[in-house]
Amino acid sequence: MKTETRALIVKIIQDEGSARPIELVKSLGISPQAIHRQLRSLVACGFLEPRGRGPMTRYFIAGAPQLNAALSWHASIARPAETQGEFLCQTRDVFTARLGRLSLFTRMGLKEDELPLIISMTGEIGNNCFDHNLGNWRDVPGCWFEAQASGGRLWICVADRGQGVFRSLTRADPTIPDEQAALVAAFERTLSGRTPENRGNGLKFVRNIIVASVGRGLACRSGAGLVERGRLGAECSKELTRFPSQPGGTITLILWSLK
Amino acid sequence: MRIMLKQYGDILTSRPAGREAALAMKARLRPAAGKKIELDFDGVLSVGPSWLDEVLRALQADYGRDGVICLPTKNLSVIESLKVIGR
Fold first, then answer.
1. Could you tell me the pTM of the whole model?
2. How large is the ipTM?
Protein backbone atom coordinates (compact mmCIF):
# COMPACT_ATOMS: atom_id res chain seq x y z
CA MET A 1 0.00 0.00 0.00
CA LYS A 2 2.78 2.39 0.97
CA THR A 3 4.68 1.68 -2.24
CA GLU A 4 1.54 2.25 -4.27
CA THR A 5 0.88 5.60 -2.55
CA ARG A 6 4.46 6.70 -3.11
CA ALA A 7 4.23 5.79 -6.78
CA LEU A 8 1.01 7.82 -7.09
CA ILE A 9 2.63 10.82 -5.38
CA VAL A 10 5.60 10.67 -7.73
CA LYS A 11 3.28 10.30 -10.73
CA ILE A 12 1.22 13.36 -9.75
CA ILE A 13 4.35 15.45 -9.24
CA GLN A 14 5.81 14.26 -12.54
CA ASP A 15 2.62 15.17 -14.38
CA GLU A 16 2.06 18.51 -12.67
CA GLY A 17 5.68 19.59 -12.28
CA SER A 18 5.26 20.05 -8.52
CA ALA A 19 2.67 19.70 -5.77
CA ARG A 20 1.85 20.98 -2.30
CA PRO A 21 0.92 18.47 0.41
CA ILE A 22 -2.65 19.81 0.56
CA GLU A 23 -3.05 19.15 -3.17
CA LEU A 24 -1.89 15.57 -2.69
CA VAL A 25 -4.29 15.10 0.19
CA LYS A 26 -7.18 16.17 -2.07
CA SER A 27 -6.02 14.12 -5.04
CA LEU A 28 -5.37 10.90 -3.17
CA GLY A 29 -8.00 11.16 -0.46
CA ILE A 30 -5.73 10.15 2.39
CA SER A 31 -4.84 11.95 5.62
CA PRO A 32 -2.40 14.86 5.76
CA GLN A 33 -0.33 12.89 8.27
CA ALA A 34 0.03 9.99 5.86
CA ILE A 35 0.95 12.33 2.97
CA HIS A 36 3.62 14.08 5.05
CA ARG A 37 5.02 10.72 6.16
CA GLN A 38 5.32 9.56 2.54
CA LEU A 39 6.81 12.87 1.41
CA ARG A 40 9.48 12.71 4.14
CA SER A 41 10.33 9.22 3.03
CA LEU A 42 10.56 10.20 -0.65
CA VAL A 43 12.80 13.17 0.20
CA ALA A 44 15.03 10.97 2.36
CA CYS A 45 15.40 8.52 -0.54
CA GLY A 46 16.38 11.35 -2.90
CA PHE A 47 13.31 11.08 -5.14
CA LEU A 48 11.77 14.41 -4.20
CA GLU A 49 13.03 17.83 -3.28
CA PRO A 50 11.08 20.37 -1.16
CA ARG A 51 11.20 24.05 -2.03
CA GLY A 52 9.69 26.87 -0.01
CA ARG A 53 8.59 26.99 3.61
CA GLY A 54 5.65 26.02 5.77
CA PRO A 55 2.31 25.55 4.04
CA MET A 56 3.72 26.96 0.79
CA THR A 57 6.28 24.17 0.49
CA ARG A 58 6.12 22.51 -2.90
CA TYR A 59 7.65 19.15 -3.75
CA PHE A 60 9.52 18.56 -7.00
CA ILE A 61 11.19 15.58 -8.61
CA ALA A 62 14.83 15.80 -7.48
CA GLY A 63 17.24 16.46 -10.34
CA ALA A 64 14.51 17.41 -12.80
CA PRO A 65 14.18 20.93 -14.18
CA GLN A 66 11.10 23.09 -13.79
CA LEU A 67 10.70 24.35 -17.33
CA ASN A 68 6.99 25.01 -17.57
CA ALA A 69 7.40 28.78 -17.68
CA ALA A 70 10.23 28.70 -20.22
CA LEU A 71 8.61 26.16 -22.50
CA SER A 72 5.23 27.84 -22.32
CA TRP A 73 6.81 31.17 -23.26
CA HIS A 74 8.73 29.60 -26.12
CA ALA A 75 5.94 27.41 -27.49
CA SER A 76 3.06 29.86 -27.09
CA ILE A 77 1.27 30.48 -30.37
CA ALA A 78 -0.02 33.82 -29.12
CA ARG A 79 2.38 36.65 -28.42
CA PRO A 80 3.54 36.17 -24.81
CA ALA A 81 3.77 39.03 -22.32
CA GLU A 82 7.03 40.95 -22.42
CA THR A 83 7.08 41.39 -18.66
CA GLN A 84 8.73 38.11 -17.71
CA GLY A 85 11.16 40.21 -15.69
CA GLU A 86 13.36 37.65 -14.06
CA PHE A 87 14.10 35.49 -17.08
CA LEU A 88 13.38 37.46 -20.25
CA CYS A 89 16.41 39.42 -21.45
CA GLN A 90 15.13 41.93 -23.97
CA THR A 91 18.59 43.13 -24.94
CA ARG A 92 22.04 41.60 -25.22
CA ASP A 93 23.29 43.84 -22.43
CA VAL A 94 20.73 42.45 -20.01
CA PHE A 95 21.60 38.91 -21.03
CA THR A 96 25.34 39.48 -20.60
CA ALA A 97 24.84 41.04 -17.18
CA ARG A 98 22.72 38.09 -16.06
CA LEU A 99 25.39 35.58 -17.14
CA GLY A 100 27.22 36.57 -13.97
CA ARG A 101 24.41 34.98 -11.95
CA LEU A 102 25.82 31.58 -12.90
CA SER A 103 28.55 32.24 -10.32
CA LEU A 104 25.94 31.53 -7.63
CA PHE A 105 26.01 27.86 -8.55
CA THR A 106 29.55 27.45 -7.24
CA ARG A 107 27.83 27.42 -3.82
CA MET A 108 25.79 24.45 -4.99
CA GLY A 109 28.65 22.30 -6.20
CA LEU A 110 29.70 23.82 -9.54
CA LYS A 111 33.49 23.56 -9.70
CA GLU A 112 35.30 26.91 -9.77
CA ASP A 113 37.34 25.96 -12.83
CA GLU A 114 34.20 24.92 -14.73
CA LEU A 115 32.41 28.23 -14.13
CA PRO A 116 34.25 30.05 -16.99
CA LEU A 117 33.23 27.25 -19.37
CA ILE A 118 29.58 27.36 -18.34
CA ILE A 119 29.46 31.13 -18.72
CA SER A 120 31.15 31.26 -22.11
CA MET A 121 29.10 28.37 -23.46
CA THR A 122 25.82 29.90 -22.30
CA GLY A 123 27.03 33.24 -23.63
CA GLU A 124 27.58 31.81 -27.10
CA ILE A 125 24.10 30.31 -27.18
CA GLY A 126 22.37 33.44 -25.89
CA ASN A 127 24.33 35.76 -28.13
CA ASN A 128 23.21 33.69 -31.12
CA CYS A 129 19.62 34.67 -30.27
CA PHE A 130 20.52 38.31 -30.77
CA ASP A 131 23.01 37.85 -33.63
CA HIS A 132 20.52 36.02 -35.82
CA ASN A 133 17.26 37.72 -34.91
CA LEU A 134 18.06 41.35 -34.25
CA GLY A 135 15.45 43.38 -36.14
CA ASN A 136 13.76 40.18 -37.22
CA TRP A 137 11.97 38.77 -34.16
CA ARG A 138 8.68 36.96 -34.72
CA ASP A 139 7.05 38.95 -31.95
CA VAL A 140 8.77 39.40 -28.57
CA PRO A 141 12.40 40.51 -28.80
CA GLY A 142 15.09 38.96 -26.62
CA CYS A 143 15.88 35.62 -25.10
CA TRP A 144 14.73 33.63 -22.13
CA PHE A 145 17.60 32.70 -19.83
CA GLU A 146 16.99 30.56 -16.81
CA ALA A 147 19.28 28.39 -14.68
CA GLN A 148 18.36 26.13 -11.81
CA ALA A 149 20.06 23.47 -9.71
CA SER A 150 18.29 20.41 -8.46
CA GLY A 151 19.48 17.08 -7.11
CA GLY A 152 23.14 17.75 -7.89
CA ARG A 153 22.45 18.91 -11.44
CA LEU A 154 22.52 22.31 -13.08
CA TRP A 155 19.98 22.99 -15.83
CA ILE A 156 20.30 26.00 -18.11
CA CYS A 157 17.62 27.00 -20.59
CA VAL A 158 18.07 29.61 -23.32
CA ALA A 159 15.20 30.24 -25.74
CA ASP A 160 14.08 32.80 -28.28
CA ARG A 161 11.07 33.59 -30.43
CA GLY A 162 13.09 34.37 -33.51
CA GLN A 163 13.31 33.02 -37.03
CA GLY A 164 14.83 29.66 -36.17
CA VAL A 165 18.06 28.03 -37.29
CA PHE A 166 16.77 26.78 -40.64
CA ARG A 167 15.74 30.21 -41.93
CA SER A 168 18.97 31.70 -40.68
CA LEU A 169 21.35 29.12 -42.15
CA THR A 170 19.67 28.69 -45.52
CA ARG A 171 20.69 32.28 -46.28
CA ALA A 172 24.28 31.00 -46.22
CA ASP A 173 23.62 27.55 -47.68
CA PRO A 174 20.35 27.20 -49.64
CA THR A 175 20.98 23.46 -50.12
CA ILE A 176 20.18 22.66 -46.48
CA PRO A 177 16.97 20.63 -46.91
CA ASP A 178 15.12 20.96 -43.61
CA GLU A 179 15.13 22.07 -39.98
CA GLN A 180 16.83 18.91 -38.74
CA ALA A 181 19.69 19.24 -41.22
CA ALA A 182 20.05 22.91 -40.33
CA LEU A 183 20.49 22.14 -36.64
CA VAL A 184 23.06 19.44 -37.35
CA ALA A 185 24.96 21.87 -39.59
CA ALA A 186 24.86 24.53 -36.87
CA PHE A 187 26.64 22.24 -34.42
CA GLU A 188 29.01 20.53 -36.85
CA ARG A 189 29.93 22.95 -39.65
CA THR A 190 31.61 26.34 -39.61
CA LEU A 191 28.68 28.08 -41.19
CA SER A 192 26.78 31.20 -40.22
CA GLY A 193 23.55 32.86 -41.21
CA ARG A 194 25.50 36.12 -40.89
CA THR A 195 27.39 35.44 -44.12
CA PRO A 196 29.52 37.09 -45.56
CA GLU A 197 30.82 37.82 -42.06
CA ASN A 198 33.49 35.36 -41.01
CA ARG A 199 31.95 33.60 -38.04
CA GLY A 200 30.15 30.40 -37.13
CA ASN A 201 32.29 28.61 -34.57
CA GLY A 202 30.30 29.36 -31.39
CA LEU A 203 28.21 26.20 -31.42
CA LYS A 204 31.24 24.06 -32.25
CA PHE A 205 32.80 25.49 -29.09
CA VAL A 206 29.64 24.56 -27.16
CA ARG A 207 29.64 21.04 -28.60
CA ASN A 208 33.32 20.52 -27.72
CA ILE A 209 32.71 21.47 -24.09
CA ILE A 210 29.61 19.31 -23.77
CA VAL A 211 31.21 16.14 -25.15
CA ALA A 212 34.41 16.63 -23.14
CA SER A 213 32.93 15.06 -20.00
CA VAL A 214 30.37 12.35 -19.26
CA GLY A 215 28.46 14.54 -16.82
CA ARG A 216 27.20 16.96 -19.45
CA GLY A 217 24.51 17.08 -22.07
CA LEU A 218 22.63 19.42 -24.35
CA ALA A 219 19.60 19.41 -26.59
CA CYS A 220 18.58 22.09 -29.03
CA ARG A 221 15.25 22.33 -30.77
CA SER A 222 14.31 24.66 -33.58
CA GLY A 223 11.00 24.06 -35.32
CA ALA A 224 10.82 20.34 -36.14
CA GLY A 225 14.59 19.92 -35.72
CA LEU A 226 16.06 18.44 -32.56
CA VAL A 227 19.68 17.56 -31.83
CA GLU A 228 21.30 16.31 -28.69
CA ARG A 229 24.95 16.17 -27.76
CA GLY A 230 26.83 14.65 -24.83
CA ARG A 231 26.15 11.73 -22.54
CA LEU A 232 23.21 13.49 -20.86
CA GLY A 233 21.79 14.90 -24.08
CA ALA A 234 18.93 12.40 -24.19
CA GLU A 235 17.62 13.68 -20.86
CA CYS A 236 17.57 17.20 -22.26
CA SER A 237 15.74 16.04 -25.39
CA LYS A 238 13.14 14.31 -23.26
CA GLU A 239 12.40 17.55 -21.42
CA LEU A 240 12.12 19.58 -24.63
CA THR A 241 9.79 17.12 -26.33
CA ARG A 242 7.27 17.42 -23.50
CA PHE A 243 6.04 20.55 -25.28
CA PRO A 244 4.77 20.98 -28.83
CA SER A 245 7.21 22.33 -31.38
CA GLN A 246 6.33 25.63 -32.95
CA PRO A 247 7.25 27.02 -36.35
CA GLY A 248 10.17 29.16 -35.34
CA GLY A 249 12.44 30.16 -32.57
CA THR A 250 15.10 28.07 -30.92
CA ILE A 251 15.37 26.55 -27.47
CA THR A 252 18.49 25.01 -25.93
CA LEU A 253 18.67 23.04 -22.71
CA ILE A 254 21.98 22.24 -21.02
CA LEU A 255 22.47 19.72 -18.22
CA TRP A 256 25.66 19.83 -16.15
CA SER A 257 26.42 17.49 -13.25
CA LEU A 258 27.54 19.21 -10.09
CA LYS A 259 30.00 17.68 -7.62
CA MET B 1 53.15 45.86 -24.76
CA ARG B 2 50.72 44.13 -22.41
CA ILE B 3 46.93 44.56 -22.53
CA MET B 4 45.10 43.65 -19.32
CA LEU B 5 41.82 42.29 -20.65
CA LYS B 6 40.05 42.65 -17.32
CA GLN B 7 39.92 46.35 -18.21
CA TYR B 8 37.26 45.35 -20.76
CA GLY B 9 35.09 43.40 -18.33
CA ASP B 10 35.12 40.13 -16.44
CA ILE B 11 32.76 38.33 -18.86
CA LEU B 12 33.87 38.72 -22.47
CA THR B 13 31.50 36.82 -24.75
CA SER B 14 29.86 38.58 -27.68
CA ARG B 15 31.14 39.69 -31.08
CA PRO B 16 29.84 43.27 -30.76
CA ALA B 17 31.66 43.60 -27.41
CA GLY B 18 34.79 42.11 -28.98
CA ARG B 19 34.69 44.53 -31.89
CA GLU B 20 34.24 47.47 -29.53
CA ALA B 21 37.11 46.29 -27.33
CA ALA B 22 39.37 45.85 -30.36
CA LEU B 23 38.61 49.38 -31.57
CA ALA B 24 39.40 50.77 -28.11
CA MET B 25 42.65 48.80 -27.98
CA LYS B 26 43.76 49.93 -31.43
CA ALA B 27 43.08 53.56 -30.56
CA ARG B 28 45.57 53.38 -27.70
CA LEU B 29 48.15 50.89 -28.96
CA ARG B 30 51.58 52.31 -29.60
CA PRO B 31 53.85 49.26 -29.50
CA ALA B 32 57.58 49.93 -29.83
CA ALA B 33 59.18 48.49 -32.95
CA GLY B 34 59.75 44.77 -32.62
CA LYS B 35 57.64 44.47 -29.44
CA LYS B 36 54.74 42.04 -29.42
CA ILE B 37 51.27 42.78 -28.10
CA GLU B 38 50.55 40.50 -25.14
CA LEU B 39 46.95 39.74 -24.15
CA ASP B 40 46.79 39.07 -20.41
CA PHE B 41 43.69 37.21 -19.15
CA ASP B 42 44.49 37.60 -15.47
CA GLY B 43 41.34 38.61 -13.55
CA VAL B 44 38.94 37.77 -16.38
CA LEU B 45 36.18 35.36 -15.37
CA SER B 46 35.12 34.04 -18.76
CA VAL B 47 35.96 34.50 -22.43
CA GLY B 48 34.01 33.23 -25.43
CA PRO B 49 35.41 32.37 -28.86
CA SER B 50 33.26 35.05 -30.53
CA TRP B 51 34.75 37.87 -28.43
CA LEU B 52 38.29 36.55 -28.72
CA ASP B 53 38.02 35.99 -32.47
CA GLU B 54 36.97 39.60 -33.02
CA VAL B 55 39.86 40.95 -30.92
CA LEU B 56 42.54 38.70 -32.41
CA ARG B 57 41.33 39.22 -35.96
CA ALA B 58 41.43 43.02 -35.56
CA LEU B 59 44.83 43.15 -33.85
CA GLN B 60 46.46 40.61 -36.15
CA ALA B 61 45.27 42.56 -39.18
CA ASP B 62 47.43 45.46 -38.02
CA TYR B 63 50.30 43.75 -36.23
CA GLY B 64 50.50 40.35 -37.93
CA ARG B 65 49.78 36.89 -36.60
CA ASP B 66 53.12 36.73 -34.82
CA GLY B 67 52.81 40.23 -33.43
CA VAL B 68 49.97 39.33 -31.04
CA ILE B 69 50.28 36.65 -28.37
CA CYS B 70 47.95 35.31 -25.70
CA LEU B 71 49.75 34.91 -22.39
CA PRO B 72 49.42 31.49 -20.72
CA THR B 73 46.37 31.07 -18.51
CA LYS B 74 44.59 28.30 -16.63
CA ASN B 75 41.20 29.72 -17.53
CA LEU B 76 39.50 26.87 -19.41
CA SER B 77 37.24 29.19 -21.39
CA VAL B 78 40.30 30.87 -22.91
CA ILE B 79 42.00 27.56 -23.66
CA GLU B 80 38.90 26.11 -25.34
CA SER B 81 38.18 29.34 -27.23
CA LEU B 82 41.69 29.41 -28.70
CA LYS B 83 41.33 25.79 -29.79
CA VAL B 84 38.10 26.39 -31.67
CA ILE B 85 39.12 29.60 -33.41
CA GLY B 86 42.47 28.11 -34.36
CA ARG B 87 44.59 31.15 -33.57
1. 0.86
2. 0.94
